[in-house]
Amino acid sequence: MCAPERRFGALAAAAQPEARTPPQKLTITLVIDLPCASTVDALRRLRDFHRSHPTVEVEILVLDPAGFARLAPAAAATILTVELGVPLRWEPARLQALAVQRVPFFRLEDSRGRAVTAFGVPSLDGMLGGLQ
Description:
The chain is an alpha/beta fold. The chain has helices at about 40-50, 75-80, 90-100, 125-130; strands at about 25-30, 55-60, 90, 105-110, 115-120.
């Protein structure tokens, strides 16, 4: 199910100031459904976060690779040119383990195994505050 474009996850940390310093190791996973209207905004949010936190490992998972066929040409061009430097991957077992119910879905996990999740297009720096 596609989340509304500006729907935030239920995080108390989302109201905290931006530009937090990430833990030693941080991995961010984004799960997208390509035809969802909020996919492009989620990818751009991830790109901007990664630019300000270049040591963060990024993983992008696609719910259904056939989604490319359902994309409007302009959306496909935008998705393919977001410049994140990581491939879009389809991993059914990983998707099942994440138990994603709405997309876009973000998961930030630190080196201690603590994780914060949200759907929609949340403040990623706010999510980062949830790990500190």
